[in-house]
Design brief:
Blueprint (H helix, E strand, L loop, with lengths): L1 E3 L7 H9 L4 E4 L5 E4 L37
Parallel strand pairs: 1-2
Antiparallel strand pairs: 2-3
Length: 74
């Protein structure tokens, strides 16, 4: 669907409905510029630093050499 940005008969709700149905909507301006109306899925929430604090525990020997790798150690 191609519409003129200055067309007074076009309603934004109609354009949104067309995009939701899968149509590609282009909006033309008098300045020879073209815009495409696209659907954007819900934005991902930003991660919050420290939100898992207290949920994870590290073993005291976490960085100790593993028995399986003794032959490779110097």
């Amino acid at each position: 669907m191609i519409v003129n940005a200055h067309d007074k008969n076009i309603k934004l709700a109609d354009l949104i409905q067309a995009v939701q149905k899968g149509e590609v909507v282009f909006i033309l301006t008098d300045e020879d510029k073209t815009f495409q109306l696209v659907r954007v899925d819900a934005l991902k929430k930003r991660r919050k630093a420290g939100s898992a604090k207290g949920l994870i525990e590290m073993a005291d020997d976490f960085d100790a050499p593993l028995e399986d790798f003794k032959d490779y150690m110097l």
